[in-house]
Amino acid sequence: MRTTAMFVFCVLLAACSGGGSTTAVPGPQSMQTLADMQANATATKTYTIPAGKCAIPYCSNAPLLYQGKQVNTIGYTDGVTYFVNTNTAGTVTVGKRVFYDFTGTFTNTGTTTIGGLTYFVWTLAGKFSTGMDKFKEVFDVRGHSGRGGGNTIINAGGTIVTPQVTPAPTPPPPSPTPVPTATDS
């Protein structure tokens, strides 16, 4: 009797402690959570830069809007000096955060008609924050710079597309230190 009671007690103890060889299988609820986490990892936000706030080679403290409300300011420099399809490099500033790795292109992407006049559409597009944030600003241009013709430039506005979480900017790389040579005295 005592042996039987001890046996039953050991079986119950083993059952309560989960000491079996079965493996836990996630239920449908945990799989949904994993899918949500994966979806959130790739979710993005689109911010807008209002029209008329930026110039082609630079922008300073333009409003950065999310769903129509200002959430920050945006600025950039890009090295563009001529109306020619070209690669660009510079900085993007969001609020007080400066990203030194802005690279992209300045390209003629077509034409548009405004008030019966034809304008060339020039698009400044690129990436920053190690390629995680995408930037695009559009300008409508009539005429040309130089050659006595002048031009009319209308800033049509732009967008910043970013993941839900943007990493902190990295500082620019340090300048190399000159190494003295044998001829330096």
Please give a handful of descriptors for the protein shown:
eight-stranded antiparallel beta sheet, 8 strands, 17% helix, globular
What does the model show?
With 185 residues, this protein is an alpha+beta fold. It has a domain at 42-163. 17% of the residues lie in helices and 47% in strands. It has 2 helices and 8 strands; from the N terminus they run ααββββββββ. It has helices spanning 2-17, 28-42, and strands at residues 44-49, 58-66, 69-77, 86-94, 97-114, 117-128, 133-143, 151-163. Strands 1-8-7-6-5-4-3-2 form an 8-stranded antiparallel beta sheet. The protein starts with a helix and ends in a 22-residue tail after the last strand. The model is unreliable at 3-39 (pLDDT under 50).
Percentage of residues in DSSP E strands: over 45%
Summed over residues and divided by their number, the pLDDT gives a mean of 77
Query: What is the string of helix and strand elements?
Result: HHEEEEEEEE
Topology, number of strands? 8
Radius of gyration: 29 Å
Number of helices: 2
Question: What does the largest sheet look like?
Answer: 8 strands, antiparallel
Spatial arrangement of strands, main beta sheet: 1-8-7-6-5-4-3-2
- Model regions low in confidence, pLDDT < 50 over at least 5 residues: 3-39
Helix/strand-derived class?
alpha+beta
**What general form does the structure show?**
globular
* Distance between the first and last residues' Cα: 101 Å
Question: Helix amount, in percent?
Answer: 10-25%
